[in-house]
Amino acid sequence: MTKTQQAQKILVTGATGTVGRQVVTELLARGHAVRALTRDPAKAGFPAGVEVVRGDLTDPDSLVPALEGVTGVHLITFGGAYFAPLETGPRILELARAAGVRRVTVLHGGEATPLEQAVRAADGLDWTVLMPVEFMGNALEWADGIVTAGEVREPFVSRLSAMVHEGDIGAVAAVALTEEGHGRQEYVITGPELLTVGDKVATIAAARGRDIALVELTEEEAVAQWRAAGHPEDVIGFLLEAYGNTPEVGRTVADTVEKVTGRPARTFGQWAAEHADTFRAG
């Protein structure tokens, strides 16, 4: 951290989520103070040094104590027990401005959610919209099949993905929350390479030190598998579209991570090495 990058206190909402935990980790690594917001502090499980506070984005006034003394806030677009789209954005941002918050990042929810729209319309705040593509962590869904049967069963195995390490999402957020020059920006965040399903399976196999069979499913077989796993019909429809007709943004490598953080984006090989034990039999 340079003299112009003073330690700051940042409020991370959605702090116990996949990305939220990475934002906390990256901020700590950069020497900043972190206040983590959760509805259940007793279950947060953060390392020493993280200030854990209770609050709920569906009840903006519950955030007033959490906003005191922070310079930046990381927001998510869904909240409550059922993760419904938040309608409380205007009030949250009003309270943030009143508390002296200068910077806000918001994790894109896949569509134009009310909270994200409120962030984009906010005056007096440097906002950054984080737009990650497919998470590398999605591959954890294969763990049971790999451990029990040594196989991955998927449709559309030739589809391409520029999947991103969740830690890189956290790193981009940490920079945008603490440094100048990222206000009113949309950042598409990807990994450094395009991968097919076969590429991903081979990478995991190499990391765990044992071959994995790839079984290509028809659409009908995939739908039956997803239904058996308990996925609702709207999720199944989303998966068919996302996998069968991956949008260009999801299969195009962007250099955002390196431009923002100054280091290359992490590879799927690095992710697989970090999680190799998950794909090995106990």
UniProtKB/TrEMBL annotation:
A Pfam family this protein belongs to?
Answer: NAD_binding_10
InterPro entries in the record, alphabetically? Ergot_Alk_Oxidoreductase, NAD(P)-bd_dom, NAD(P)-bd_dom_sf
Provenance organism: Streptomyces chartreusis
**Which protein, by its recorded name, is this?**
NAD(P)H-binding protein
Question: Which superkingdom, per the lineage?
Answer: Bacteria
Tell me the lineage of the source organism: Bacteria, Bacillati, Actinomycetota, Actinomycetes, Kitasatosporales
Q: Where is each NAD(P)-binding domain found?
A: 14-108
